[in-house]
Amino acid sequence: MTSTDEVAKKVATGKELTTPELIALKSADVKGAESERHKKVFVLPAGPKPTEANGYAHDANKAATIQYMLGLGLRPSGEVKLDSIKEQKTRDGRSIGWELTYSVGAIPADEYDPEDKPAYVVDPDVDEVPANTDNPPGDAGTGTPGTTVTNGDIAE
């Protein structure tokens, strides 16, 4: 495994990086160049364990993981998966939050063939985009119950 420090030294000396090294360099949550997977960590406040059984929807975090990697010049080569849910605790054992780690196979943009997979994050045929919010459905994140946004217009 190549450490992130070793990757930085390679960059500084102008040496060519392998695909795992490039992914490690671009992905802040990848600690070493051991695979061709982009990782993204989300930290949540203390509360019930964020599992689907407890009503937590992971779709928004999965979409954000892909959006983040697109901004870094990486393209997904598969589906995003939830790798782990770890509870963060103080030294005396009090829960202070949750760390959710997601990963997805990654391809550097210059090696990406658009014929391999569509380059959109959210399916264009879906009317509503999943989100982890307290807003009621149809609220469109405005904070006003019953407000719906359609084609940029607000309808009551």
Structure explained in plain terms:
With 156 residues, this protein is an alpha+beta fold. It folds into 2 domains: 122 residues, no CATH class; 30 residues, no CATH class. It is built from 3 helices and 6 strands, in the order ααβαβββββ. The strands form 2 sheets. Strands 1, 2, 3 and 4 form a 4-stranded antiparallel β-sheet that branches. β5 and β6 form a beta hairpin. The longest helix is centred in the middle third of the chain and has 13 residues. The chain is flat, with a radius of gyration of 19 Å.
Relevant terms:
156 residues; alpha+beta; 2 domains; four-stranded antiparallel sheet; two-stranded antiparallel sheet; disordered C terminus
Short summary of the structure?
This protein is of the alpha+beta class and 156 residues long. Helices cover 19% and strands 26% of the residues.
Strand and helix layout:
Blueprint: H1 4-12, H2 19-26, E1 37-45, H3 59-71, E2 74-76, E3 81-89, E4 95-108, E5 148-150, E6 153-155
Antiparallel strand pairs: 1-4, 2-4, 3-4, 5-6
**Sheet of most strands:** 4 strands, antiparallel
Shape designation: flat
Termini distance? 56 Å
- SSE string: HHEHEEEEE
Number of strands: 6
Low-pLDDT segments: 134-156
What's the overall average pLDDT, rounded?
77
Q: Give the radius of gyration.
A: 19 Å
Strand content: 25-35%
Q: Please tell me the total number of domains.
A: 2
Residues in helices, as a percent range: 10-25%
* Secondary-structure content class: alpha+beta
Number of helices: 3
